[in-house]
Amino acid sequence: MKRLFRVGIATVLFGLILGWLFVLFPVEKRVFKAALTQPLVNFRKTDDQLQFISCICGSTLRPDEVPDSVANALIATEDRRFYQHFGIDFLSFGKAVLSGGNRGGSTLEMQLAKNTLNGASPSALRKYAELFFATRISLSYKKEDILRLYLSRVNFGRLNGVPIFGLRDAAYAYFNVAPERLNFAQAAILVGMINAPSLYNPINNPKSSSQRAELVLRRMESEGFIDSAVGVELAAALPRSIGRLPRRDRYLEDQVMRELRDLTEPLPDGLHFAITTIDPIAQEQARRVVARDIQDYRSRGVARAGLISLDSKGRVLAMLGGLDYRASNWNLAMQAERQAASTAKIATYVAAIEAGWGPGATLKDNPDDIEADFVPRNVDRRYVGDIPLRDCISQSRNVCTMWLAERIGFDAVAEVAERIGITETRMPGSAIVLGAAETTLARNAGAYLAVSNGGELYEPHVLRAVLGQYGKVLYRDSAEPTRVMTLVTAERMKQLLAGVTADGATGDTAQFEGGRAYGKTGTSQENRDAWFVGFTDQGIVTAVWVGPPEGRLMRNVAGGQLPAEIFSDYNVNLVERFQGYVGQLPYDPASFWRDVNVP
Fold first, then answer.
1. Domain stops at, among 232, 247, 262
2. Are residues 128 and 160 in the same domain?
3. Crossing angle of helices 29-37/124-140, nearest 10°?
4. Residue 136 shares a structural domain with residue 164
5. Beta-strand runs (E) in 288-400
């Protein structure tokens, strides 16, 4: 009777605590799911200091990356009733309560909650918060998806000071094989690490690792996953050297910490999780495409590149801050200012549309018709006289653009450039017309986002939310857009940008199969900068910049070449992922496996 009474009391208390936590920490659904799928930065706040701890930056494992050897070893060792409970193993939890212990009954869902939502402060309240979030995880995902989420986030220790998170990175770091090729012995070694990653590190502590792996195999045998643990050769499977270590994204880590420091509301002291906006698949796509496409242009002096990709709310989906952080930690996507070149012409044409100029309006492409002190010339040194406005922008002609800017007024162009964010302050004179003004990839992408967005501008950002102890939401991105042009103006500008990527136009290289590109090329004088900034029908805005080493020049590299190629190659392999995209990441677990495919 006393035992039943204790179980009843425990159940009632458990229900009350869950209800209280739901009211106290109502983690919004998208924030909750983003914490389980988005790159996650772990940091500590102490007084006025922020300390970076680690970043879980990899993409979620595909179904074919989780072999039975790993799944079975994990279930046998960490949660043998995994398929019999709904996030909470009441049987094991009840036994722990009845025995008076403070351990036991921890399910994979509870461990996943602790690792990504709840922090690791040792307290009874934290344990109950784990139960709460474990229930939400169980209600939100299938068991197979929970396994993949868990194995994508779990800590596998450190090698040479580099933290290893997730099965994919662990398989390459310890055994130099793809995760789906792990055998039973290797699976037992890795799963054995989860309980204490440092103690059971197979390279640093092979004896302890082997003993722990033997325990894993015995548990697999007792659960019927293998016939016998005796025949598995652990000694031969122990790694003798370090394999391929994961690549840290220092540019992303730095940007997250900068945005955390810029928050207007101070964060409380403690250990926190920063959820980023980064789509890990898009991020990997950007890295691989740029690394591949740039090779053919090395001989022409291309040595640096940056890329930023935004969704319709200004959330950064992909950010390439540079090719080598050790060579320069200056973020080419968010910090570096470069001449905008012809990508800044968007300001002139928006101002023209607002002044009543249409796509068929006749412009003058003749230097003799320019009255300004600075008389530009066209890249091809050819001048066609009368030219329709739509052809002037699609052919990126400088003289007719300057003629148009004179008619609508340089002040009007400068005001638009400041309003849509290309420049931070208003520039006098004609400098802004052809892009002598400097801007960042982020600001330039934001300007084109306003066109794609029907005239609404969001500030680009990588910080989506901050979770504190017990999963409490301390911050979430909720910035309201700024209307910088009317919907009609934005749609008309969008059609002009569609002409830039049409066959035979300067940006036609940006075209990609399965989607439509809108955008503008840009090449600064003396080949110091080459740009392409554009967007797709899904509202994904991408800005690409390439350049030479500091103080050097490129040779014959235009915005319609390499930058437009990168834009095309980046988007073509993401068409399916962003199909039907409406400003939010596809959190359906079925989309997790869609990996990049760069030949």
1. 247
2. no
3. 90
4. no
5. 304-310, 316-320, 338-339, 362-365, 385-388
